[in-house]
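Hey, I'm writing a tutorial for new members on how sequence and structure tokens pair up, and I'd like a real worked example in the thread rather than a made-up one. If someone can provide the structure for the chain below, I'll link this post from the tutorial.
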Amino acid sequence: MADVVERFEVAFNQIHQHLKELNGFPKNDNFVELLQHSKLKHSVIRIYFDKLKQYAKLRNAIVHERIDEEYYIATPHLDVVEDLERIKRTLDQPPQALDFATRPVLYFKTDTDLTHILEAFEKHPISQFPIYGDKFEFKGLLTNDLIVRWMSRSHEQGSLRLEGVKSIDVLKEEDMPNVQFLKSDRTVYDLEERFEDSLQNNQKLKAVILTENGEADETPVGIVTTWDLIKVDRRDPDE
């Protein structure tokens, strides 16, 4: 019994330390409050929130309500301990950002015909394509919404035509969208922080493009939007 309790306490304390790190080691290091705060920013924590909150109650009963040194008022079942240890391993090695990205990334050049891109929208369940210049410099994100707005504006001006129109012609209709770049080996924590920071700065982040070194002039290997983050919440905890 003592071994099971010790394993539970070790795993719990390691998770507590992890929550402190996620929150920048605040003065108030109450486990449940750290858990609540982390839940707001990290989907991985949200997945395990209810379990960890219940395990915190069990931990308090073990630590603070024991009758004597060897007699506990409550003890965890082995499967509970193993579950807590499994959660701990997941937090130590969170899912990769690439796990939730759309890939491979279909992208086009600035001189690509708009008609070709419209065909791509029709063939693929994708709503946005990165556009790059001749030297592979990132120029913007061509979305189906942007194309619709461009077509509507052109129609109003009596100049709607598709022949000869290039992707850059449509991109000129809008300022550079808020797009960030992230190294492809980063975790879902890093990914979510990008979107969280953009919200705090009142800037809507359109997408995060994943590249080998996180540079804008590299081939994109994945692209993540706010819709893709829903996959994190829906992830099976036992995967």
